[in-house]
Structures are given as C-alpha cells and as structure tokens.
C-alpha cells in the first residue's frame, strides 16, 4: 500500500517528535517518598488532626501530635491575628488545624475542635432538651467528661467528674452504681 503525501508528512512529524522529546513516560513523582505517611496525607490536604501538644503566644506557634502510636509526629504551625478559632488550641485537646504555606512556614488559618463520634446506642441531646430534663426534675446522673482541671474551673450544678481517660481506664467501674438512672455526659463542646 502506498502512503499519500499527507500520511508521509504525518509519519515524519511523529518520528521527529519522538526523536526530539523521547517516548518514555516521565519518571514517577518521588517527592512524597521521603515523607512519612502522616506528613504525606496531612500535607496534601493542608490539615493536621490530632492532640494539641502546646501553644506559645510569644513565638506564635502551635504544636500538634498527628498520627497514632509509633507513627505519631509532632508538627508545628505558626499563627497570626487572622487565625480563626485560637481558643480551640488548648494543650491536651483534640483539634483540627487547617493551614496554608507561606514561604517556608505553615500558618494556621483555622482551628476547630475535633468532635467525637457517638457510639451505637448513644443519643445526643440538645441544650433545650437538657434544660427541659432539669426543669422537670428528671432523675439523672450528670457527668462532666472534661479533664479534672477544667471541671475544677467550673461545671454544671450536680455534675460529677469522670474524665475520658479515667473512663477508658476503669470502664464501667467508673460509672455510678445506679443502672436505672438516666446518664448524661457533657464535654467542652458539641459531640
């Protein structure tokens, strides 16, 4: 079969393109290969989720532990007057920090509390529902699940302190003996 003039030009152009640019695929991006799984995942989304290790108002930095067990790493971000939610950057509290890259530094743009997921069989009640229970004199045990230091700063009347670490360690032994009474937990924010 004889090639037409256009086909010859097209074939020549294709061969010339391969000779000048090569036909191999570009090498894979290895920039993520030197990063830990925590850094690769978190930096791709510009979000750090974990427990706040510390906050320095003088240096304007927040340290947050990201990852679990032996994979955990402490990451540091800076903050400024435009950072939203700085009140959620409390040592020991779970937080979600959204950040942006500015030169070589990561700056927190927004900090939110990391919300707990309710276990199966547990229901959430709203403030107005709780208010109605109190007004109606409903028999209940009110549990403050925040750290003891936060409980000592102030708590709802009649509430007892059972911080989450204590509950995890002791299990049901930490709970009140009365099993027929409504049990209501609250913490430092919505769950």
From TrEMBL:
Residues 136-189 form the Rhodanese domain. CDD domains: RHOD (cd00158). Residues 1-24 form the signal peptide. It holds the Pfam family Rhodanese. The keyword Signal applies. SUPFAM superfamilies: Rhodanese/Cell cycle control phosphatase (SSF52821). Keywords: Signal. This is Rhodanese-like domain-containing protein.
């Amino acid at each position: 079969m004889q090639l037409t003039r256009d086909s010859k030009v097209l074939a020549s152009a294709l061969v010339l393109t391969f000779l000048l640019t090569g036909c191999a695929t570009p090498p894979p991006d290895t920039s993520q290969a030197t990063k830990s799984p925590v850094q690769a995942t978190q930096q791709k989304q510009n979000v750090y989720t974990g427990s706040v290790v510390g906050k320095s108002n003088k240096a304007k930095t927040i340290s947050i532990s990201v990852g679990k067990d032996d994979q955990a790493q402490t990451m540091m971000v800076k903050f400024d007057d435009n950072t939203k939610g700085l009140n959620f950057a409390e040592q020991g509290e779970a937080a979600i920090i959204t950040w942006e890259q500015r030169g070589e530094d990561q700056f927190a743009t927004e900090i939110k509390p990391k919300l707990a997921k309710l276990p199966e069989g547990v229901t959430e009640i709203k403030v107005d529902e709780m208010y109605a229970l109190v007004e109606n004199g409903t028999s209940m045990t009110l549990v403050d699940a925040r750290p003891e230091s936060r409980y000592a700063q102030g708590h709802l009347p009649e509430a007892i302190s059972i911080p989450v670490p204590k509950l995890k360690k002791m299990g049901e032994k930490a709970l009140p003996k009365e099993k027929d009474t409504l049990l209501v937990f609250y913490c430092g924010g919505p769950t």
